[in-house]
Structure formats: C-alpha cells, structure tokens
Design a protein that fits this description.
It is a single chain. Helix content is about 30%, strand content about 15%. It has about 325 residues and is an alpha/beta fold. α5 links the parallel β6 and β7. The radius of gyration is 21 Å and the shape is globular. The N terminus is likely disordered.
C-alpha cells in the first residue's frame, strides 16, 4: 500500500557533489494526504533530549576498484538533515537533486543471512554503493553482517525496531516513537557504538503525520522512493530486473527501493547492475553531514532487552554428582 499525496518538509539540504572516482584514500576510520511538518500541530511535550554526540571514527572508505568495466559511483552528495527533509517522488517532490540517468540504490529490511552478503558481493564487484535501511531487531540478530555493510562504505539508515506499520491506530504516539528510536539505538549497538546516518524509511512507506513532524524535530531525513522494484512480490530475479529497468526507462532516473532481506534481490543484483551500466546510468551515493544522535533512554532499553542469562558460577562439585559407576 502506498500513499499518493506529496509532502513538503521545511528543511535545509546541502548537496555537495564530489567527483566520480570510486577509489578513495583511506580515512582515519502508503493512504492520506500528509500536511507539511511546518504546519503540523506542536507536540504536547518536548521529545527527550538526544544523548550527547560523541565523536566517532570516520567510516571506512570504499575499496579501490579493480574492475575497469565496473558501474562505479557517478557522484557523492552530502545531506544536511536539519528539519527532516524528504526524498523520493512517491511522496516528496521538492528536493529533486538527481540528474537524468542517475539512480540511488536502497535496500530495506536487513541485515539477513545469505541475502545481505550476496547484495554486498554484487555491489563490491561493480564498485558501487547503496543505502541500507536496517530493522533494529535484525541488527541485533546479525550484528556482524551489519558491520560488513558499514565497513564496505555503504550508508546505513534505519527502518524501525520491528517493521510494524506506524499508521496502526492501536499504537500510541509513544509506541510509535519507540519503534523509531529503538531501531536507531539497536543499529548503533550492532555497529559497536557507531551511530548510523539520520536517514529513515517508514515501513510500507506509510507516513503518519505526527511522526513526520517528530522526525523533523529530530533532524532525521525521511526516504520514500521514486520507483519500487516490488521484489517482495517477484517470483524470479528476472522479474525484478525487468521491473526496475522498465520503470527507469520511463522515469529516466530515481531512488530505487529493493530489499536485501529477499533472496531474489541478491540473485538479481549482479545482472541488474550490469544493465544499469549498459544503459548509461550512474549511481549516486548519499551521505549524511553528521550521524544521528541516539537517545540515552532507548540506548539503555536495547542493552536491557539484549541481556542474556548468565552462566552458572557454581563449582562443578555442586552441579554434577556421580551417583553410580
């Protein structure tokens, strides 16, 4: 289900294009019209203050490309997320920064065994990059896979704690905020204390107006898409490739929505990237000006949730007793 209405979010955006090189020097380490955030009612109470932003090492650079025929990266843009800017023409039409034949590759619902590593392998072979919108619970299941995503130089955003639809009327406003914030804190935990980008995508692209306002107050950018691969419905890799290429040929450019959670997506990606190269498309990397600031109460909640039973410290003789031989 997708929302048809557009949305303007008052924000400042800095799109700083850098040149087209993949190689980098290594750093130090969907159902109603939505009102603009500026016109939405003020929240009844101020949001809890974010945790103080600690300096964190720079993200590892993408590896030097050894494939002379690779798709690569056409340019990199830096996003100032102040005010919660929105991207993706399905809902947000004001910030049209892509040029003709430019694409942004995005992957939802990971990390996941087998499929996410398959996506990473395909991207690495074509020396290109994407944004991964992480489900918090999945991050706690497979932190090592998420660390591989980050170490490869891809942008890490978030996609709630448990992928529940935030338009569900049974959820209170506090529960909606918890879904957003725990997803962010869980991703930070899985990355070993490295905060992700302030990039967020709503499950099923369903944007409750109050949460749009909330994300604006938190200075977190909201991502919709320009074209949906519908890989979650696809019965084969070919179907995904055909869907994406047909829509790109019609639109000329766009933010592409895929899911590294799905097997067929990982299977489709090597050929899809080759088709993009053959079609003259260029990949744009999106980076945040600064990482998101998590909230201490949710950081603490994640640690509490993840506590495991401690092993017994009783001596062997009090646990195991020979009763016959």
């Amino acid at each position: 289900m997708r929302i048809a209405a557009g949305l303007f979010v008052a924000s400042t955006i800095s799109l700083l294009a850098s040149s087209a090189a993949w190689s980098q020097t290594s750093p130090a380490k969907p159902a109603m019209a939505i009102p603009a955030a500026a016109t939405a009612p003020a929240p009844a109470a101020a949001a809890p203050a974010p945790a103080a932003a600690a300096a964190q090492p720079a993200q590892p650079a993408r590896a030097a490309c050894t494939n002379p025929n690779a798709l690569g990266v056409g340019r990199t843009v830096e996003i100032d997320t102040t005010g919660g800017p929105g991207f993706g023409f399905e809902h947000f039409k004001e910030l049209d920064f892509l040029k003709e034949k430019e694409v942004v590759l995005t992957f939802d619902d990971g990390p996941w065994l087998g499929n996410t590593p398959g996506v990473l392998k395909a991207l690495a072979e074509e020396c290109t990059t994407g944004i991964f919108f992480i489900i918090g619970k999945h991050a706690t299941y497979y932190p090592e896979i998420l660390k591989q995503v980050y170490a490869a130089g891809h942008t890490v955003g978030t996609h709630t704690w448990s992928h529940i639809a935030l338009v569900n009327k049974k959820l209170s406003e506090d529960q909606r905020k918890e879904e957003i914030e725990k997803g962010i804190s869980a991703t930070k935990w899985a990355l070993g204390g490295i905060a992700p980008a302030p990039f967020f995508r709503f499950p099923a692209l369903q944007h409750p107006a109050e949460m749009v306002t909330y994300l604006g107050e938190r200075n977190i950018a909201i991502f919709s898409c320009d074209l949906d691969s519908f890989d979650f419905k696809a019965r084969s890799a070919k179907q995904i490739i055909d869907n994406v290429m047909r829509k790109l040929e019609k639109n000329g450019k766009g933010i592409v929505l895929m899911h590294d959670f799905h097997k067929h997506t990982a299977e489709a990606l090597p050929e899809l990237l080759k088709r993009l190269k053959a079609g003259g498309y260029k990949v744009v990397a999106m980076r945040a000006k600064a990482p998101v600031q998590t909230m201490a109460q949710y950081d603490e909640a994640i640690i509490k949730d993840l506590k495991l039973p401690t092993a017994s410290s009783r001596p062997l003789s009090s646990v195991v007793k020979t009763v016959s031989e």
